[in-house]
Write a structure and sequence with these properties.
alpha/beta, Beta-Lactamase, Alpha-Beta Plaits, binds the ligand Nc1ncnc2c1ncn2[C@@H]1O[C@@H]2COP(=O)(O)O[C@H]3[C@@H](O)[C@H](n4cnc5c(N)ncnc54)O[C@@H]3COP(=O)(O)O[C@H]2[C@H]1O, binds manganese (II) ion, metal ion binding, transmembrane helix, hydrolase activity
């Protein structure tokens, strides 16, 4: 019998090894050169052992796994099962049927081999679950199910179902789901209006060929729907590489001109059930991308929005015509209401209160009763409120919960200086009012007010106060704004432009000039920004403790005394005046969380940096409120985001 041969050879080998061992010492002593002989002998012995091991394994496999081993119970029940089956004990293969040998082992033998050499991914715990485990062997794909083998403790039987076809079909299905892209050339009208026809053609041809090349890489197609708008239908597999490359088409188009004159906005909808649903998602995405200032891609998925790009400054894109139309529409809406409630964001600031005061004047011009809902305990515009109280205008400002009783189905809510539901001064008022108007200048973000009756949203405007100024100028009626109201609006503009340093367009100065002509005193306005000595000291303290990290000033502070909230944004402003600081981040503990104010001079987009922390705002002015978070955590998260942003910037310039 063969296994007897095996034993004989083993005995022979043993003898050989003993002889070699006996020889080594005397030979090494007398003639070291002859040591080569035992070495060669050992080598031969090893070869023989390896060869025998293979033969032994083949022999065992034949005995155990072939059908002529009639006495085995496993054999009886499983050998003819037409799916690959393997018995595993203690991590080693004990037995398998012929299908396993054919489909998984490619006709090699593997009895007693460790199972993780043959199936490295196999995890018996996962296989034992009802859905089994996905396994890949070469090109073939299986689902493995495991059960414990009867009668043998610790041994498992693993069944492998070859479902390569279904899995490949499923993958192909997922990869080929439809996705829709809407691509818009930002500020097309403004740019192309002044161009000669030949220049227009050249410009468009450059953009077209970049877009064609980009979509040409996909399996889909591109169509131009209007002069400035394209639509592309692609597949999920294409969206995947576009996301991985972070829509570098944006950079390519921006690079056509040194100043980044032409930019694109892209809205992507993917993951929807139907092509129609994806198209709808793409439309929502392009709206939000444009609302955030353009030059970026917004991707709507089933769980929300993601943004890519958005590094250039928005180009001013507004027309007086639009302001006039909105002014008329707003007037109409107000006149058709019983009463109006005006409300800003919580922790109201000079811009929120200033613009609310402007809107109140519009309501008065329309002869409709109106109030400003404001929490005067939690505001950063204390000095402004006080000025109005002192002037005997206190009745116009009411605590939010006091307005709830007077809300009727015909009450109009006008929200100023925010677009976000969660930042509103009062959620209850918002929920109770049927009709809502929004006047805001912040770049749009996720969680915005749905379906407002009217929106006046201009991300290029400096402030909500500037927008309200324009509306006031177009009011159909004789304008009777008071000098004090003009001053409130001017304070709003000055706050958000950091006294006309940032974010100022031609229209900002126009609005300021108009306010001046209506009696706003600049010196008095400046007084509204003054602080107490304690606040000044706290501010200096924070600035002193700041350090610089990758061009960003970071300052941390323990909780401030109640009523000192304005110290936080002011310290952030101060830090920006230091040479070599591109952006500043001030984090202050507040209750169980941390409040953050961030500022930049435009070299960094602080909105993008704070968005992952749940904050938002503008390119140059942003904030976030972290709940249940320590100061150290906040610092770590800020630095993490700065790292990511700097890395992305580096990659961009490298490209
Ligand atoms: N969780 C979140 N989600 C989305 N957006 C968020 C957000 N948290 C904050 N923001 C936005 O970020 C911007 C900056 O907020 P921050 O509190 O640092 O700075 C505020 C305010 O604290 C600061 N401020 C108020 N009074 C001030 C004064 N007297 N002097 C200097 N700064 C003042 O002026 C800034 C006015 O900024 P603005 O209202 O246009 O826009 C705000 C706010 O709308
Ligand atoms: Mn504000």
């Amino acid at each position: 019998m063969k296994h007897k041969d095996g034993l004989d050879i083993a005995a022979l080998l043993l003898l050989l090894l003993v002889a070699v061992a006996a020889m080594v010492v005397p030979v090494a002593l007398t003639q070291p050169a002859l040591l080569a002989v035992p070495a060669v002998l050992v080598l031969i012995a090893l070869c023989v052992v390896l060869y025998q091991r293979r033969r032994l394994r083949a022999f065992l496999a034949r005995q155990l796994c072939s059908t002529d081993f009639e006495n085995s119970r496993i054999q009886y029940s499983l050998a003819n099962l037409p799916i690959p089956t393997v018995l595993v004990n203690d991590g080693r293969i004990l037995w398998y049927n012929q299908y396993f040998r054919q489909d998984v082992l490619d006709d090699y033998d593997a009895v007693t081999r460790p199972v993780n050499r043959v199936l490295p991914e196999l995890d018996l715990a996962v296989c034992s679950r009802p859905h089994g485990q996905d396994l890949k062997v070469g090109e073939r794909r299986f689902t493995a199910y495991a059960g414990s083998a009867k009668g043998s403790r610790g041994a498992s039987l693993v069944y492998l179902i070859n479902d390569t076809l279904y899995k490949e079909t499923l993958d192909e299905y997922n990869e080929s789901r439809p996705a829709c892209l809407i691509i818009v050339i930002d500020s097309y009208d403004e740019l192309f209006d002044d161009m000669k026809d030949s220049e227009q053609a050249k410009e468009l041809e450059a953009i077209n060929s970049l877009l064609e090349e980009y979509i040409g890489r996909s399996t889909g197609f591109l169509r131009k729907v209007t002069n400035s708008r394209y639509i592309a239908v692609v597949e999920e597999r294409d969206v995947r590489w576009m996301l991985a490359e972070r829509f570098d088409i944006l950079d390519k188009v921006r690079a056509l001109h040194p100043g980044g004159l032409t930019t694109l906005s892209i809205g992507v909808g993917h993951g929807g059930k139907t092509l129609q649903e994806c198209h709808q998602m793409a439309r929502e995405s392009i709206d939000i991308a444009l609302g955030r200032g353009g030059d970026q891609a917004a991707v709507k998925t089933v769980d929300g929005f993601e943004f890519y790009g958005g590094i250039s400054h928005g180009v001013e894109k507004r027309s007086h015509v639009r302001s006039r139309i909105i002014a008329n529409a707003l007037c109409d809406l107000i006149k058709r209401s019983d009463s109006v409630i005006i409300m800003g964001h919580r922790m109201s600031d000079l811009d929120a209160v200033g613009s609310a005061i402007g809107v109140l004047r519009i309501c008065k011009m329309c002869d409709v009763p109106a109030v400003i809902a404001i929490n005067s305990e939690a505001t950063l515009a204390g000095p402004l409120l006080k000025t109005f109280l002192d002037a005997g205008e206190g009745h116009d400002f009411i605590a939010p919960d006091q307005t709830l009783d007077v809300i009727t189905p015909n009450t109009l809510l006008i929200v100023v200086d925010t677009y976000q539901k969660r930042l509103l001064e009062s959620q209850q008022i918002y929920e109770k009012c049927k009709r809502v108007v929004v006047i805001d200048h912040h770049r749009m973000a996720v969680g915005h007010i749905d379906n407002p009756t009217l929106i006046y949203h201009e991300p290029y405007a400096s402030s909500a106060s500037e927008l309200v100024c324009e509306l006031l100028q177009f009011m159909p009626k004789e304008n009777n704004i008071t000098p004090l109201e003009a001053q409130a609006l001017l304070a709003g503009i000055m706050l958000d432009t950091r006294s006309f340093a940032l974010h100022v367009g031609v229209r900002t100065f126009e609005a300021a000039a108009w306010l001046r002509s209506r009696g706003a005193q600049t010196a008095d306005t400046k007084l509204l920004f003054n602080t107490s000595k304690e606040e000044y000291e706290a501010r200096a303290h924070i600035v002193e403790a700041a350090y610089i990290y990758k061009g960003c000033a970071i300052a941390l502070s323990d909780e401030l005394e109640a009523g000192m909230n304005v110290v936080l944004p002011m310290a952030a402003n101060d830090l920006l005046t230091i040479n070599g600081v591109d952006a500043s981040f001030v984090a202050v503990a507040k209750n169980d969380g941390v409040n953050i104010s961030a500022r930049s001079m435009g070299a960094l987009n602080v909105q993008v940096i704070l968005e992952p922390l749940g904050g938002g705002g503008h390119l140059m002015m942003a904030g976030a409120q972290l709940q249940n978070c320590t100061l150290q955590d906040a610092e770590r998260r800020i630095r993490e985001q700065i790292d990511l942003y700097r890395a992305a910037q580096k990659e961009n310039t490298a490209r």
